[in-house]
Amino acid sequence: MKRFVIAVTVGVLFFAVIVWGQKPAEPKGGSVEQELIKLENGWNDASVKRDVAFLDKILAEDITDTDAEGAVWTKTQDLQNVKSGDFALSSAVADTLKVRVYGGAAVVTGRNTIQGKFKGKDISGQYQFTDTWVKHADRWQCVASHGSKIVQK
Which of 20-24, 46-50, 74-78, 141-145 has the lowest mean pLDDT? Predict the structure, then answer.
């Protein structure tokens, strides 16, 4: 009987170590990092195409969007700027993306290279950005965004 108890205990411990060492299952469609990179690239594409529906979906209702000049914009203002054509991009490409995940929140940093205008003023150039995402129910939404123009030397 003693051997049986020892054998069962060793078996349970062995199984527990195997299960404990496994990585958690990735979400459908890949990792959280890949999902957020896809959303960042989708944000750029939607900005160029003026796809307000996509932007409405990914921007949280209470987003704080700080632009390169320090102005703070609401979601309503952001969407209106895209709808009206005041914010008009002809291209936007992200690179050097880095994603850090903290449970149901994540921070994405990277660089956007854009060609475009805001209220008729050329805003083309490279911008370093930080976006904070939160998982709401079944989707990620950006709750804070900040971009700083990279000064060319």
Answer: 20-24
Q: How many CA atoms lie within 13 A of 90 on its CB side?
A: 7
Domain residues for the domain of 76 are 31-149
Strand partners, 81: none
Q: Compute the average pLDDT of residues 53-72.
A: 97
User: Quick check: 13 pLDDT over 90?
Assistant: no
Q: How many domains does the chain have?
A: 1
User: Cα dihedral angle (130, 131, 132, 133), rounded to 10 degrees?
Assistant: -150
Instruction: Give a yes or no: residue 19 inside a domain.
Output: no
Neighbours of 127 (CB within 10 A): 19
**φ, ψ dihedrals at 137, nearest 5°:** 55, -105
Q: Which residues pair with residue 114 across a beta bridge?
A: 92, 125
List, in sequence order, the alpha helices (H) in the chain.
2-21, 32-49, 52-58, 75-84
Please give the structure tokens belonging to residue 31.
Answer: 């990792």
Looking at residue 38, its pLDDT comes to 98
Measured torsion, CA atoms of residues 36, 42, 44, 46, in degrees rounded to the nearest 10: -140
Task: Report residue 152's pLDDT band, with 50, 70 and 90 as the boundaries.
Answer: confident
